[in-house]
Amino acid sequence: MLSLILIALIALLQYPLWLGKGSWLKVWEFDQQVLAQHEINQKLQIRNTTLDAEVRDLKQGSDAIEERARSELGMIRKDEIFFHLLEDKKNTSQASQVEEGKP
């Protein structure tokens, strides 16, 4: 009888450790969530660093502004000649249009 009481007492003491509010399973789940959030934070930190460098470059240097104007807006410098090459349906390139542009 005494052994059954001791076994029941041990089981009651072990319940919070394995199945309760602060159980090992919940601690492991929270640890996994923390690791996943840490990875997300690292990716966002890298993205923020890249964006910060781009902003600083745009504020300080004219090379980045010129590159954006060329690639996104199609702008060219004065006295430059713009060649626009079009590909035909057979994947052969030919010069189709020559324009002289202004900034």
List the helices and strands and how they pair.
Elements: H1 2-18, H2 24-60, H3 62-73, E1 81-87, E2 93-100
Antiparallel strand pairs: 1-2
Helix pairs in contact: 2-3
Write a short abstract of this structure.
The protein is of the alpha+beta class. It has one domain. It has 3 helices and 2 strands; from the N terminus they run αααββ.
In total, the number of domains comes to: 1
Care to count the β-strands? Answer: 2
Reported for the largest beta sheet, the result is: 2 strands, antiparallel
- So how many helices? 3
Mean pLDDT: 80
The class by helix and strand makeup works out as alpha+beta
Q: Give the SSE order as H and E letters.
A: HHHEE
Helix content: 55-70%
Gross geometry? rod-shaped
Radius of gyration: 33 Å
Gap from first CA to last CA: 97 Å
Instruction: List segments where confidence is low: pLDDT < 50 over at least 5 consecutive residues.
Output: 92-103
**Cross-sheet strand order for the largest sheet:** 1-2
Strand content: 5-15%
